Amino acid sequence: MVTLNGNGNHALPKRTEDYLTAGATEGSCNAELFAAACQLRDAGHSPSEAEGQLVARYVADGCSEREAVATIRSAFSRPPRDPIPSPRDQVDQLVNRYGRRDGEGARPTVDEIREAVKACATLDPLAWAETRKQLRILAGDTFRTQDLNQMYQQVRKEVNRSQAAESMSAAARYLETETGIVYEKMTERGLVRHPVTDWTGRIVEWITRVDDDGQEEHIMRTQVQHPMHTTTLDIPSELFGDSNGFGRFITGRASGIFTVFPAMHRHLPHAIKSLSGTIPRKTTYRFLGWTEHEGHRTFLSPGMSVRALGSLMEPPEVELENRLSGYGLVDESWEDSLAAFNTAVAVFPPHMAGALTAFALLPLLQRFFPPAAMRPALHLVGTTGSGKSEIAALMTSFYGQFTRDTPPAQWGDTVNTVEVLGYALADALFWVDDWKPCYSDEKTFTRFLHAYSRGMGRGRLTKDSKVRQDRPCRGLLLSTGETTIEGEASILARMLVLEIPPWEKRDPGAKKLAQAEILRLMLPGFTAHFARWIAAQMEAGTLQSHLAREYELSVKGYRDKLTVQLGRQANTGRVIGNWAALITVYRLLRQFLEERDADDALPTWQDSIVQTAKAVQEERAGQVFIDTLGQLLASGDVRLVDLDSDDDVKPGAPIIGYQDQRFIYLLPEISLREVKPTQSLNFTTKSIGDQLREDGWLLPNTADGRLTIQKRLRGNRAWVWCLKREMLDGDTEDSSDAEAHEPHQVAVQV
Predict the structure, then answer these.
(1) Among residues of the chain, what percentage have pLDDT more than 90?
(2) Three-state SS string across 576-639, please?
(3) What is the 3-state secondary structure (H, E, C) of 325-372?
């Protein structure tokens, strides 16, 4: 049984009563306060009762009331221990139980004596001497006085050690001094102070960066200050859980003067965090484009964001790389925005103005197209002074403030840099200037363009051999250069190449450009109005189905057009998809302008899909192989043997195959061997044969579908490609130009 005081709480130990009466010595105020708060908690006092007794005592010792309240609440946040029984009560219970019994067996057990001594651990030596006499009488011959003293001293040490450890853990804290950060704690030997750094640091802002897919990245913006240098660092939050990495990050970014004292690295993250107090939070978005914000489809950009109801009064903060600082929509009136649109479009070459306008605004709609829709890139090629950079700058100015001398990126950057910069432009045009073959080899550029068209980034591993999140180039790629990007057909199929005519032929004196420069700052306002209209279509639930329907019709129309113009079905699916995407945007833009009675501002639609398809066909491995073979035959470097002739084969140029009146029987491996010294082809005979079969020139084996057939030639059996003879003769309609046919009208409705 434990005696309660008059308030129904358990009795307090003498140490706590002494603290309430006399306070604590200098340097131990916080430790004594915490110990007293724990005893009040264990005795059954409420937090408010404890604050009523302890705060005034702590303030009287020269400390702050706020610190007192924080320490008391920390003590009460832990579960209470069993209350300390009154030693006098426990001894009196033993006397009442055994003091009046007679006989040798009327003695307390050893465990009962030990529990009584343990209860006396908080008694001072004088009080213990009085209580010991009673215990000695009760114990009889079981314990001597010396034995009782030893037990008392042992349990007293254990209690003091336990209280000291608890007090020390609560008393440990970090201080910011004139010489740096100091770790202070209470030990059995008193107050100990360890220097952590000779500089100070505080977290000034907790930044949450949000991507358009909802992923969050937490950054702790930290100011570090040394007598010689002060700087601010954006520290990834995960480093606060890696003390060694945390210190290396600060030293590497701030300079070598920001070091940590030996054996104190583990204290640095917690020290900076504890010294920072209440940290203000901020949420930023690390991309430009569409997202779901406050339940509405919203287009976010630096400085201004827009939804169906208009621009946001308090737009969320959009934080982009310094190289992308020019991006940002503006809030302009419709009249000023339309005037800027008219002057910008007037600068574009008339025969490609419709396509350039559609490509410039395609980023606003690209993510709403069907998943199978193509994602084109555009390359503007022209000589120095042709105005290709001015046109690219105007197209990019639909999304911000750009000039010919301020492109977001250039091909002189590494491909990795281009990908990282383009990743933030989720729904914007990304202009990469000045392409030259010396900047990017064919292999690197091919990999980049393939990854771009598929929405994939370069795969990388972390230091733990785990796949790192890739960051593909998401901005719609607009490239410029003085030379045409040459390469395999897959590159040309993914990138539209438009040649910009000389400047003097379309804008003598650059008068149209001067007018566009005056209104260039208002051009992003047109994009804001168009984005608002798109958001309204999204909320109405009609945009995606409309785009899917229009895109499908455009693909069919262009496929029919190529079939008629090229005389046969060409394998140009990506080319068709690219132009279908542009004309779909053009139609939607016309609908937007018609609703505002401004459709006369839209330039006439013209495309160059036939020329693009021909260029792709010419770069296909099969076509390059056949063209080179034709040149070798014409020069006499190789020859075909005529099967209809009875003449003997005379020595001379290498034989690559045989022919009759209908077919050419080509020896594939021999032919490729002869072609390679003249034309570098990174293809096998199988890939070349597959393309020739797709183009309708190669007749496969009807038995098993193989590319080769077995045929007896001049008494020998050989596996050969069976090709249509007109492939080299060029005397059939299938391979002739479109001009050889009667005119056809193909409806690709605009």
Answers:
(1) 38
(2) HHHHHHHHHHHHHHHHHHHHCCCHHHCCCCCCCHHHHHHHHHHHCHHHHHHHHHHHHHHHCCCE
(3) CCECCCCCCHHHHHHHHHHHHHHCCHHHHHHHHHHHHHHHCHHHCCCC
- Is the pTM of the predicted complex or chain greater than 0.70? no
Tell which wins on pLDDT, 82 or 669: 669
Number of Cα atoms under 13 Å in the Cβ half of residue 255: 11
Instruction: Give 476-522 pLDDT, tens digit per residue.
Output: 999 998 887 665 666 777 888 888 988 877 778 888 899 999 999 99
3-state secondary structure 466-507: CECCCCCCCCEEEEEECCCCCCCHHHHHHEEEEECCCHHHHC
Q: How far apart are CA 604 and CA 210, in angstroms?
A: 41
The whole-angstrom separation of Cα 453 and Cα 477 is: 10
Q: Is the dihedral of CA 624, 630, 634, 638 positive or negative?
A: positive
Contacts of 414 (CB under 8 A, 6+ apart): none
DSSP-derived 3-state class of residue 229:
strand
The Cα 577–Cα 375 span in angstroms is: 8
Predicted confidence at residue 743, as pLDDT, reads: 34
Query: Residue holding tokens 């569409």?
Result: 290
pLDDT, tens only, 277-291: 889 999 999 999 999
Q: Write the pLDDT tens digit of every residue in 45-76.
A: 899 988 988 998 888 888 888 888 888 888 88
Structure tokens at 595: 């609703």
Structure tokens at 395: 């197209």
Give domain 327-541's CATH number out of 3.30.470.10, 3.40.50.620, 3.30.230.10, 3.40.50.300.
3.40.50.300
3-state secondary structure of 390: helix
CA dist 373 and 383 (Å) reads 32
Q: State residue 4's pLDDT score.
A: 43
CA distance linking residue 569 with residue 579, whole number of Å = 17
Main-chain dihedrals φ then ψ at residue 513, nearest 5 degrees:
-65, -40
